[in-house]
Amino acid sequence: MLSGLVLANAPQQALAQSKKSVQTSGFIPWFTVKNNTMVVQTGDKTKPLSEDVTLPNGIRVEYRTQSIVLTNGTRVLLKEGDMLSLNGEFLKKSPMTAAVPAPVKAAPVAEATAVAAPAPAPVAAAPVVAPATASTFTYSPAAPVNGKLKGVVELGASGFNMFIIRVDDQHNWKLEKSEFGNSLVMENMATEDDVRTGLKAYIGKMLDFGVGGHDIHFVVSSGASLSPETRRITKGLEALKYVVNTVTPEREGALGLRAALPPAFANKAFMFDMGSANSKIAWLAGGQPQVTDTYGSKYYEKNIDDAKVAAEVKAKAEKIPARLRGTCFIIGGVPYELAKAVRQGQEHYTVLRAADAYPQLTGAKIKSGLNIYQAVASATGCQQFVFGYDTNFTIGYLLSLP
Predict the structure, then answer these.
(1) Are the CB atoms for 298 and 277 separated by under 8 Å?
(2) Tell me: the pLDDT tens digits for 166-205?
(3) Does residue 70 form part of some domain?
């Protein structure tokens, strides 16, 4: 039934136009990509989509990303020549067929609620099947050779994140151990002596793992630097003769880029670090990091309007060169939750689903983070947001050391 097949969530005007097209041309429309634009094609006539479309079987056609999203959340990028019928069947022309399939006559529209629509005869149809690369990312970084253990701790107001890596002279590295959200301040460390005692125990864990005392580093994130709790911990570390490094948002973005962006993707991807207090977008231009920062996922605490945040994030993301928008390496707390929700086994990388494909995740921070994520995706048209479980900007700090 064409009335049911034509853009289930589209406006009535679009529905009427599609029916009129069938009446006047006698051809059955289909979705395809032409000149990097998602269009509806009827015979030899095309009309660009101006909004996303959901088919009756639940498949969503996204005009900005030129892709379809299956009911399980898997995204399939359409290429030039691929075709999606109105009943959700994925049609891909064979090398022997013409550039445009032979038109098929459709039955006249008798009423607005009933139109027969046989499938185009010259093209063999098959159910939509997502390619293996649609939900996986199989890149494997070079392993370190005769590497040395180094440790870094990210200080935050509510706890520590710890990373121990093995890194060689070529800066190839591998994560050996990580711990997230260790809340020392909240564990009855009321006095300076309590802080020092807790820190000694924490440092002792890294020493026991094999990290040398001179290879243990502490970094305060840009969002936590003003926290009273962080200042107490910093004071305790300095009493133990450790240097605590505080980074600016720009420096944090550059370090995140260094850790998250694989060398093979330097000229075709960008990095997005969604923090709680701020978010950093970074890419390479002429071999040098370019960083811009914007709202973090806790902007809701300041009662800032979602639309205002989305507008600024989009403006910042639009600065990314077009050639780098194919893949985004994304890190941060909310992206971790999004990746964990769809992780398959224990893979090192997870490709995130679209922002609206996480109805099971709730909470103000998640909601705000999804708003930011959607804004970046909308502004860039990026097809692939890849979360790396082994990555943190503080690892970039270790990689920046001689």
Answers:
(1) yes
(2) 999 999 999 999 887 665 555 555 577 777 777 788 889 9
(3) yes
